[in-house]
Write a structure and sequence with these properties.
Length: 724
């Protein structure tokens, strides 16, 4: 049986997989690749059953156009020429900024499509690239840019060597971590403990990870920033500061030190719920450890203070001497070292969205203003939107408002492998590729930022052919530009670079000799990055090993701030810290109110797995609201019944699960469910599930976004619950 090595493109681990196909070319079996350099035989059910999604009976295999309200098959020629000329009309009649593109999570896990998305929009002279970064991580980019000089410099915890680790708002056993490629997490965390170290999980929910490994402590949602403030306060108090290192490699220390002065752990305990004595004991242990680190993920990022909290975390790791140290945090290199190719420009103009206040991050617009962009009339109003590999109506805040806004668009196009709540509103649905059908490099975080704990570079050929009439997302971009009569990215050079493969293939003598255009682009990029030919990459089908990340290799050497030092007190973060007092008093005044957080589950992934029979069944066909016993009995709610959860923007009915895994006063609900209310056709399995869409409850708009990074606040939402 033919087998091919590839890697999964669902989450950041990007597990090495071996795909076995039968004589007809159908997938027979997918197994974990035990020889893969980084994942070493790790994989989960989602990657191992990827062919089921690729071959789903609901897979879209031809372009669809909404005719008389119904999505109807049309030819590629018709769909592309109509979309191309409509976009051209919007550009000419209004402006390039009337056109937007939203790229979702699944397509962002591939290497070239996100790069080409920027180029695609430039074709129309538009800056309106919406991306899921504002739902999961943009706070980390804005802080890194200010502290280290480049958004792509992201120190990672050196877990294999640490003696003391606190994971804030992270549940690795389920989500497999973010901004860190780290397989076999449970085993590796257990090793830390076996060697005498400590692992602590700070989370409003006693998670699957916390039950398997280490210690757990509840924290009230959205109060992490006060945890970090007190941590810094206490660290200073016990003398856990490495002054010499600060003097040599950092600036701004006295400013941050002053900010932490008013926040002893005893003060923040009533808000965070972390007992003072335990807190002080942690700080002591952190300070005494030879290698310690604090790490956070979406539990913090999606809160109201994501940038401030992450900033303080980075300050703590730096001033304690743990940044760039064994067992602390270490800084990897991408296949191209950004620290060599980035120059920090303090005069760089920060680009703003058309409301004049929302900052663009990594040249993307925060999704929290997507509905405003469509509904607010005037210059630059969004009229046409393409959604590639995403489902914003479900996954962004305020689903009902977004749905209303999307209905007002002059043109909505989705590029997807199945229908979705967003496609249900679309004028055209174009059949895109499944990752088994795409060639690829490893995900950009691993490739470009060096966030894999085991550094490597990997290339995969497409494992399967494109299904039916499906096309690569990148080809679709190129074709739309062609039909709009505009050169890609507004540049003939870019146009030639990305279409060279397709162009050469038209020459009869080369037709059968040249690879598909995506393979061709990877071949060019691979050579540019210094990794030689793709043939060489194919021979290294378990990945190409790169140099280990070495502690001591970053400070004083690879920073790109103007003075090459860590800026501990970036100006805008310092001025935002002025809101601590008010935010703290608001928390104190509202300790009795219920707060809702998001939750990820083993068998679901954002909003697409609900249409896979095996995964939906394993999830129990629904998401359930987790509620603490005390909160339930105070409201006369017993297990196994429906409740109504409501906020000022929406209301859902959901099944309740009473459990002491939740901190009192806190509720958790998994996002990505509720398809049965939104999609009338095309989702055979998801259309019969019983869950509810959590984003109906969450308000959008600037006032509900974190001011510096534009992150939507998706965690720690005040909600009310009543019996149904
Ligand atoms: N309340 C709340 N909301 C959240 C979150 C939360 O924690 N709480 N998490 C947020 C996070 S972290 C993220 S990343 C976003 C995700 O937000 P999105 O990216 O918008 O949503 P997904 O469900 O990941 O994307 C699913 C769509 O992509 C399609 N798709 C899958 N594979 C492919 C492919 O290979 N090609 C193409 N063209 N399409 C494909 C699916 O069919 C589906 O329609 O959601 C965010 N939303
Ligand atoms: N199975 C599965 N895996 C996934 C995904 C999925 O949908 N399903 N999504 C993928 C995506 S797109 C991403 S971005 C990554 C995200 O990966 P992670 O960021 O690691 O996400 P989680 O494991 O959900 O960790 C977030 C944790 O934060 C906790 N939390 C919520 N609010 C707060 C708070 O205010 N404070 C603190 N301290 N904790 C809080 C939650 O209980 C949760 O356990 O996961 C990826 N992996
Ligand atoms: S852990 Fe993530 S990358 Fe690995 S197989 Fe599962 S979904 Fe794919
Ligand atoms: Mo995400």
């Amino acid at each position: 049986m033919p087998t091919q090595h590839t890697f999964c493109r669902i989450c950041e681990v990007q597990c090495g997989l071996i795909v076995e196909t039968d004589d007809r070319g159908d997938v027979k079996k997918i197994t974990p690749n035990t020889e893969h350099i980084a994942s070493k035989g790790y994989a989960c059910i989602k990657g191992l059953s990827a062919n089921e999604y690729r071959d789903s009976p609901d897979r879209i295999t031809q372009p669809l156009k909404r005719i008389n309200g119904k999505l109807t098959p049309v030819s590629w020629e018709q769909a592309l020429s109509e979309i191309g000329s409509k976009l051209r009309r919007l550009k000419d009649e209004y402006s390039g900024d009337s056109i937007g593109l939203y790229i979702g999570n699944p397509i962002s896990m591939s290497f070239i499509p996100p790069i080409l998305s920027h180029v695609f929009l430039k074709t129309f002279g538009s800056y309106k690239l919406y991306h899921t970064g504002s739902q999961d991580c943009n706070n980390k980019f804005v802080v890194a840019e200010r502290m280290y000089g480049a958004a792509q410099i992201q120190p990672i915890p050196d877990i294999d060597n640490t003696e003391f680790f606190i994971g804030v708002g992270s549940n690795p056993v389920i989500s497999k971590m973010s901004f860190l490629g780290f397989s076999h997490s449970s085993k590796r965390f257990k090793k830390v403990i076996d060697k005498g170290g400590r692992v602590i999980w700070l989370n409003p929910r006693k998670t699957e990870t916390a039950k398997q490994v280490g210690e757990h402590q509840f924290i009230r949602p959205n109060t992490d920033v006060f945890f970090y403030l007190s941590f810094l306060h206490q660290l200073i108090k016990i003398g856990g500061i490495d002054e010499q290192r600060i003097n040599e490699y950092m600036t701004g220390w006295h400013t941050v030190k002053a900010i932490a002065a008013g926040w002893p752990p005893a003060r923040t305990e009533p808000v965070t719920g972390i007992p003072e004595a335990l807190f002080c004991e942690w700080v002591e242990a952190y300070s005494n450890a030879k290698g310690a680190c604090l790490y956070c993920s979406t539990g913090v990022n999606q809160g109201q203070h994501g940038s401030l909290a992450f900033w303080l975390q980075e300050v703590i790791n730096a001033v304690s001497g743990n940044l760039d140290s064994k067992g602390g945090t270490i800084v990897g290199r991408g296949i191209v070292d950004v620290t060599k190719h980035t120059k920090f420009d303090p005069q760089k103009e920060i680009k703003l969205f058309r409301n004049g206040q929302t900052q663009l991050v990594m040249d993307t617009v925060p999704a929290g203003v997507l509905a405003d962009d469509i509904l607010d009339e005037g210059e630059g109003q969004l009229k046409g939107l393409i959604v590639c590999g995403g489902n914003p109506v479900f996954t962004c805040a305020n689903s009902n408002r977004l749905e209303k806004a999307f209905k007002k668009l002059d043109l909505l196009v989705t590029i997807d492998v199945e229908l979705s709540a967003t496609s249900a509103l679309a004028d055209y649905v174009l059949p895109g590729s499944h990752w088994l059908e795409r060639s690829d490099f490893t995900f950009a975080f691993n490739s470009m930022m060096g966030t894999s704990s085991i550094p490597y570079h990997h290339y995969t050929d497409p494992v399967l052919p494109l299904k039916g009439d499906a096309r690569l997302e990148t080809s679709i971009y190129l074709d739309i530009c062609k039909y709009a009569g505009l050169p890609l990215g507004g540049s003939r050079i870019l146009q030639s670079f990305f279409s060279l493969g397709a162009f050469l293939k038209k020459i009869p003598a080369l037709k059968d000799k040249l690879p598909r255009h995506d393979v061709f682009i990877h071949a060019l990029l691979n050579r540019i990055a210094g990794f030689g030919s793709l043939e060489k990459m194919r021979q290294n089908s378990n990945g190409v090993s790169k140099d280990e990340i070495v502690p001591g290799d970053f400070l004083g050497k690879r920073l790109v701030t103007p003075d090459k030092k860590v800026n501990l007190a970036p100006q805008d973060l310092v001025s935002q810290s002025g809101r601590f007092e008010k935010a703290f008093n608001d928390e104190l005044a509202n300790t009795g109110k219920l707060k809702l957080i998001s939750k990820r589950e083993r068998f679901s992934h954002n909003s697409w797995t609900q249409n896979n029979e095996k995964l939906a069944k394993s999830s129990g066909q629904r998401n359930s609201l987790q509620m603490n016993t005390e909160d339930a009995s105070a409201r006369g709610i017993e297990g196994n019944r429906e409740v109504i959860v409501f906020t000022e923007v929406g209301e859902i009915r959901v099944h309740v699960n009473v459990t002491d895994d939740m901190m009192a006063g806190t509720l958790a609900l998994c996002h990505g469910w509720g398809h049965q209310h939104a999609v009338k056709e095309g989702l055979t399995v998801a259309g019969t599930t019983l869950g509810a869409n959590v984003n109906v409850l969450i308000p959008d708009g600037t006032e509900n976004m974190e001011p510096i990074s534009g992150m939507s606040q998706l965690n720690g939402i005040y909600v009310n619950v009543k019996t149904a």
